[in-house]
Known about the structure:
It is a single chain. The protein is of the alpha+beta class. Helices cover 18% and strands 28% of the residues. The strands form two sheets. Strands 1, 3, 4, 6, 9, 10, 11 and 13 form an eight-stranded antiparallel sheet that branches. A five-stranded antiparallel sheet has the order 2-5-12-7-8, with no helix packed on it.
Amino acid sequence: MKKTVLFASILLITGFLASCGGGKKTETATEADAQTETKAVPEYTLLNLPTVDLASFEKDAEGWITLFDGKTFTGWRGYNREDMPKQWEIDNGAIHIKGSGEGEAGAKDGGDILFAHKFKNYEFEFEWKVGKGSNSGVLYMIQEIKGEPSYISAPEYQVLDNENHPDAKLGKDGNRQSASLYDMIPAKPQNANAIGEWNKGKIMSYKGTIVHYQNGEPVVEYHLWTPQWTDMLQASKFSEEKWPLAFELLNNCGGANKEGFVGFQDHGDDVWYRNIKVKILD
């Protein structure tokens, strides 16, 4: 009798432990499935338009390569196109986007432009000035995405009339003012010159470290491809929730080769760029 009761008890306990173990395996599998579940990447088409060889451009003794000679648009073209939009002209040795008053890329033959060579590690120097109430930007790490604006894949060095353009008061803590990483990091100190006066800008990109300079001072520093970069995107207008494709492209800025074009934005306003050059960093 005792043996029968003892055997039955052992069977009962064994069954209970087996059922508990089975339940735990099921729960662990469910948790693993949840952890490995990823959102679908939005579909897009990456264009492969003509590029230029830097060897044909003038280089000085310090390694600076002139990207604009003040006379021609050699090496330049429109974003997502092979020609130069007619809204851009050469004005007294500077590249000028003629203010259309029709908003971002709103003119019939407007649109952003780029220098047709992909850069990876470099210093990019330029001078800029704006008309009253004008807005533009220097975009870098650009990938050409069919049917999408240049800034969907590219961080932006903001170019702005801080005194008169409403964007200067939007965003957070001045992160839409000149030389800022647009909508993410404000330029500090904010040392832009008055409208109509030339400013000197520089962008340094080296193995994911990005620095913005304005009038000789470093005003922004951040690091691509880090958790902090992802967090900044999530807190901006380019978040995964607000703009999934922009988040995907910017979070993987520069694509597989971690490189891209540099270009200027047409925001429908009068803006000038000159003394444009680059130094490749090994």
